[in-house]
Amino acid sequence: MKQDLLSKLIRLFILYLIWSAPASATVDVENSVTNVQQYLSYYIDQSAQSEIEQILSLDAAQWKTHDSDRINFGFDDRHYWFKTELTASTYKERWIEIAYPLPDYLNLYIIRNNLIESSYSTGDLLLFEQRPIEHRNFLFPLEIGDNEVVSIYIHFQTSGAVQLPVKVWEKNDFLIYENKINLLQGIYLGLMLVMCLYNLFIYTTLRDKGYLYYVGVVLSTLLFQAALHGLTYQYLWPESAWWNGQSVAVFSVLPLIFAVYFALNFLKLEENTRWLHRTFKILGPIVVTIALLNIFLPFKIGINLARTFGLIIPVLLLVAGISQWLKGDLAARYFTIAWLLFIIGTLILVLAKSGVLPSNMFTENAMPFGSACEVILLSLALAQKFTSERRKRFLAQERALESERLAREANEKTMLVQIKANETLERRVRERTLELEATMKQLSEANTMLRNLSAKDGLTGIHNRRSFDERFELEWKRAIRAKNQLALIMIDIDHFKQLNDQYGHQAGDECLKLVAQSINDSVKRPGDFVARYGGEEFVILLPETHEEGAEFFAEQVRKKVSALAIRYNELFLNVTVSLGCCITSPQCGETSYLLLEGADKAMYRAKESGRNQVQFSRLEHMASAKSPL
Question: What's the pTM?
Answer without folding.
Answer: 0.54
